[in-house]
Design goal:
Elements (H helix, E strand, L loop, with lengths): L22 H8 L10 H32 L5 H10 L5 H14 L7 H4 L6 H12 L4 H8 L4 H9 L4 H16 L3 H6 L8 H6 L9 H35 L1
């Protein structure tokens, strides 16, 4: 409701707006141009969409390939690699943020969108979810494909991966939500306004002396819409994949 009330700079506690205006959305969209005329909230929204899309696509490929290998292949150190992947879930992000920050600077990725993408192209949780899903698939499908002369990649890409679509949908939701909700890491590695994700853009509506509540709420609505659409689209497969992955 606050996003459609006139922006007075004073917090309103009324349940229903006394007057309705949509000017906040236009002002919020163009507000960053006060700092940099080439940047709008749309620029930052695009950055978030780009980062979330690339991180999600690449990490699902890497996680699913690792999960398939750990579920269907026998090789030396298989259990060790699996437990190492799980151990990453026990390490708080804030404990590795500084080493990651140093690595990003040394690799020349500071203040670029690559610094928001490269460090997060794989995850232990994704490897675990895909491994559990692949283990639940009967081996008959794989044996039949091998009998027809299919190689490992063909079996993984054309047979096994389509059979775990619920897990893929679940990981899409998890990856996008996690990438979209980042604030601390972009705050460390991004300084250029044209490369900021939308979360940092929303922070500009909060000043030392005044908060533009109308603009802030309008910006939050804009930032929430893509996530809401994604969740409603993948809701069915999300619930199925989460329950199936954890049981498998």
């Amino acid at each position: 409701m606050r996003s459609i009330e006139p922006d007075t700079g004073i917090e309103s506690y009324s349940l229903l707006p006394k007057s309705v205006t949509f000017d906040n959305y236009l002002l919020a969209w163009n507000y960053p141009s006060v700092i940099d005329e080439k940047v709008t909230l749309g620029t930052m929204l695009f950055n978030s969409l780009l980062v979330a899309s690339v991180v999600t696509f690449v990490s699902i490929i890497f996680d699913s390939m690792a999960g398939y290998a750990l579920a269907r292949k026998n090789f030396v150190g298989k259990k060790l690699l699996f437990w190492l992947a799980l151990s990453t879930l026990m390490i708080p992000f804030y404990a590795i943020a500084i080493p990651m920050y140093i690595i990003v600077i040394r690799m020349g990725m500071y203040d670029s969108l690559l610094s928001l993408i490269i460090p997060f192209t794989a995850s232990g949780f994704g490897v675990f979810m895909f491994r559990q899903s692949f283990l639940s698939i009967p081996s008959d499908f794989e044996q039949a494909a091998r009998a027809d002369g299919a190689n490992d990649f063909y079996i993984y890409w054309r047979i096994m991966l389509p059979m775990v679509k619920p897990t893929v949908a679940t990981m899409i939701v998890f990856k996008v939500l996690w990438s979209w909700g980042q604030f601390f890491w972009p705050l460390l590695v991004i300084q250029d306004y044209s490369k900021m994700p939308i979360n940092l853009g929303l922070a500009m509506f909060r000043g030392h002396n005044i908060t533009r509540w109308g603009l802030l709420c309008a910006g939050m609505v804009v930032a929430t819409i893509p996530i809401l659409v994604l969740f409603l689209t993948c809701q069915k497969w999300y619930v199925e994949g989460l329950s199936g992955g954890l049981k498998g």
